Amino acid sequence: MRRVVTLSVADSLLCLRGLSPERLRFEVEYGLERGTSTNSFFIPGPEATLIHPPGESFREPFLEALKQHCPPDHPIAVVVGHVNPNRVGLLRSMAMAYPRLRLLASSAGVKLLQELWSPPSRPGSTTPSADPSPAPPVPPLQMVRGEVQMPVGKPDDHWHLRLCPAPTPRWPGGLLAHEDRDGILFSGKFFGAHVCTEELEESHGGLHEEDRRFYYDCLMAPMAQQVDNVVDRLEDLTIQALAPGHGPMISQSWRRLFNDYRRWGEGQHHSSLSVALLFASAYGNTAAMASALGQGIAKAGVRVQSVNCEFSGAEDLRQAIHSSQALLIGSPTLGGHAPTPIMAALGTVLAEAERTTPVGVFGSYGWSGEAIDLLEKKLRDCGFPFAFPTLRVRFSPDAAALKRCEEIGTDLGQTLHRQQRQQQRRAAGGLKDSSSAPSLQALGRVLGSLCVLTARRGDLGGAMVASWVSQASFTPPGITVAVAKDRAVEQLLHNGNHFALNVLAAGREKGLMKHFLQPFPPGADRFAGLEVTESPHGQPLLQEALAWLEVQVCQRMECGDHWLVYGHVEHGALLDEQGRTAVHQRRSGAYY
After folding, report:
1. What is the pTM for the complete model shown?
2. Is 58 helix (H, G, I), strand (E, B) or coil?
């Protein structure tokens, strides 16, 4: 049930918050399944101001709430924070309800508004709009080319709004707003979190840290350099509070959140490996696939250079191609063709890239997908090796498709790391590195029980062999398990999720070990061919195990290249009272 509540932020400043307890789309950013909230901010005045309207998903409750504060015959200026078909659908409805509407957007945002304003009429269109009525005329558009200031509110309020274009590959039409009097930054897609809450702002700093980190990893990590550039520019503003487009406001710990964004992106900046992710997206579907691929690549510790070909210069494209160890290119199919910017990017790839560079092709389509076929054929004909089979999604990708994209990205990142290590060993004459150091030999003598961690949430499932497992508390009974950041199952191990720990039996552990240590293709069923039952919360239990525990995740801590996951044991049983626990013996602490 979607609804909109009105929250008072300051004198004459209201937050119209849309609330949905369920995820609205299948995109990876909603993966924690904690619902979402979408924030718009309203300032009354001779010309009312609306900052960052929601998407069409909230059309009816939002327009009803807006009319309580702004009658339809009143002039209203709308600051469009970012542009996609979902937002444009809501703006079309506003244009019909408010004849004195005008829109303010960045230069890229104006271009997108003009392109998306009239929805495709072809049946089965990929646009989210479900309104079959003709689109109204495009309202007056004001293009914001650089930072500009505009008075807002009533004359005696002394409020000025500073509009700041903040383009990124995912949101080329990004536009932030800063209110000078009270120091409120309306940050749009930046610093958000998908949680369904009526709480105006966080009651204490870090309350939604996990949600914000997950949001960052899904959306910001694949374009960390551009995100850092935006954060650096925001340092010049006088800020008292952040008002993001999703989740509660942040006033107590906004500085910490700035530092977190920089810290979370450090791995991207320091990586010596890079993948260029070139794409264009008409309705956001190919961009969602690009984000999922980029998230998987980033999880493997490889830098992602995201390039939106519609809004990037030729020099940026060439730089990304020459500095990357792999090239991925994604395109929608429009009228049986690839968009012109993608064709230009393909020409640059064919002219500039080394023929030994691995490539990948992905894209969404509504009917026949000619653009994807064309990209694949051109690259194959020129002799490029393919990093993975071409990814095709009809209409919008679902959760399983996006999970497969993420796993493909992680596999690519891991492959690049293996190749780099092999080159380094050859350059060093095949000598071992520091894995034989005395301290690492001693660390390797720390033993752990051999287990298989299994997890399932909805249609998504995963498993991994785990030996870094330890009991962590008596009351309540709890355990910790270390999970490498690039494990596919890691996405299913967030606070509130359940997983099962299947303890292996000494002397008969080899079969399960062999099964779960084999490389699985992205999207494969990890449990095919095994005897599996379910725990009380639906987690996979291996009947060949010695014992099982069902655990609810309570905390996560970032520890270098691993997450340390702590959870409470809720259920468990011995399957073999006579068996003994299999133990993992290591020669060095430098590897598993």
Report:
1. 0.88
2. helix
